[in-house]
Amino acid sequence: MRDSLSALTTRGRAFVAAGLTCLFCSMVLGQKDLLRIGILVLLLPMVTVLMISRARYRLSCFRTINPSRIPVGKPTRVTLSLDNRGRMPSNLVLVEDQVPYVLGTRPRFVLDEVGPRWRREISYTVRSDVRGRFTIGPLRIRISDPFGLIELTRAFQARNTLTVTPEVQPLPDGQLSGEWSGTGDNRPRAFAAAGAEDVTVREYRDGDDLRRVHWPSSARMGELMVRREEQPFQSRATLIIDTRENAHRGSGPASSFEWMITAAASIGVHLARNGYALRLVSESGDDPVGQWHDRGSGSVGDTEDLLDHLAVIEASDRESLELPRNREDRSGVIVAIVGLLQQRDLAAVRRLAQGSVAGYAIVVDITGWLRPGSPERADIEERMERTVGELRANGWRVTLAEPQDRVATLWAQLLRPLRGGLINLPADQVRAQGARVARGGS
User: Fold this and answer.
1) Cβ neighbours of residue 182 under 8 Å, at least 6 residues apart?
2) Residue 407: other Cβ atoms inside 10 A
3) Is residue 174 part of a domain?
4) Whole-model pTM?
């Protein structure tokens, strides 16, 4: 009852004020007609409050987001299905859905004549220029009575999640040198510089063909052993991203950190679609998505975990790189996207290159993200020169990324033959070469 009284509209408060005024004037002037008018005017909002407080609006809401995962800058449609399962009519219903500010303004709809067994579907479009995982909801509704004297606010508890993934730019196809290994539990061996043990048998499992039983191994092991089947070979790649806050410059979507995330998403999807078993590693040396041998069959669906993680990844406060140390973790093709490196970080890069078959590095040249007249520009340029030289000396193919560069352009530079590639160029010539390619030159 108290909530209903507080929900009186301006019209409802005016009726109450008019009724009390008539009652006061009737007592002062002794006019019974004013007394009757005052009681009538005062009873109307009071009766409405009583009816609203006892009525049960059985409104239900079901929200769908299609699609629920979108890339940056692409729209998606949100559909609200409203259903009034009660018998209480309403004159007007104001519907307002709660959305984060990065998705746009809050959508509001005014619905007329909501009667018994009423049903309606309304939809709106949202888009985001910022990656992330956002919560849409809860839905709030404001219900008014047929006389417009009362407005009640109700909120649903249901919420839905929208995932905005980084932009995935198409990359040109090219030849990558790397390790090929069999896939699945029964791969026979790994052929490359970092080979694995040649194991051709495994334990017997229910459903295995008895004709595959390897009797000499079974006698030696004391249990049934079966031969592994040959499987198609599959290449593997490790994608390393440097998410340290002190390695990047700029803020918001235009920062070097966001450029790196876009590059990681584009390269990761490109490798997975070309049959690489992909493994994502951060500067902490951990794989936040899963080991490379658990996925990477080359289908588009294999990139969902990667894109979901890149959608919510944030800059870390770590000071140095902790790259993989095991030989198995350093095998295959390695693609590293790094920012500003310290001297101790270069030592970690040297260790990483010792076990890899091929190393490709995109160094984010953060000088392009510095403010004009920044006092640290000279120091950063010198450290960038040292980073490129160190990577080149350890056999990496290196290219520098500037704010205006497209990932496809840099990827094409990395795939060029060594004789004419960027690996033999100093950092200043790498910048000049990248600028010429971006302008369409040779």
Assistant:
1) 188, 189, 190, 230, 231, 232, 233, 234
2) 23
3) no
4) 0.72
Hey, what amino acid is at 334?
I
Cα distances (angstroms) measured from residue 119 to each of 58, 104, 236, 342, 367: 12, 27, 53, 63, 58
Give the C-alpha separation, 102 to 65, whole Å. Answer: 16
Radius of gyration of the chain (CA): 33
Given a contact cutoff of 8 angstroms between Cβ atoms, the answer to whether 111 and 92 are in contact is yes
Region label for 256, one of left (φ > 0), alpha (ψ between -120 and 50) or beta (otherwise): alpha
Name the residue type at position 291: Q
User: Is there a single domain that holds both residue 143 and residue 161?
Assistant: yes
Pairing of strands 190-191, 180-182: antiparallel
What is the full DSSP assignment across 172-220? Answer: --------EEE-STT---EESSS------EEE--TT--GGGB-HHHHHH
Query: In this structure, are residues 277 and 236 in contact, taking their beta carbons and an 8 Å threshold?
Result: yes
List, in sequence order, the alpha helices (H) in 329-426: 343-355, 377-393, 407-414
> Is 370:254 a contact under the CB 8 Å cutoff?
no
Question: What is the identity of the amino acid at 372?
Answer: P
Q: How many residues does the chain have?
A: 442
Which domain, by its residues, includes 38?
2-54
At position 308, the amino acid (one-letter code) is: D
Q: What is the pLDDT of residues 373-385, one digit of tens each?
A: 888 899 999 988 8
What residue type is 348 in one-letter code? A
Q: Give backbone dihedrals phi and psi of 289, rounded to 5 degrees, phi first.
A: -100, -40
Which one, of 70, 74, 112, lies nearest residue 94 by Cα? 112
Structure tokens at 196: 């694995």
* CATH number assigned to the domain comprising residue 434: 3.40.50
By DSSP bridging, strand 90-97 and strand 59-66 are unpaired
**Domain total for the chain?**
4
pLDDT tens string 134-178 = 999 899 988 777 777 877 788 888 899 999 999 999 999 887 765
151/215 same-domain check:
no
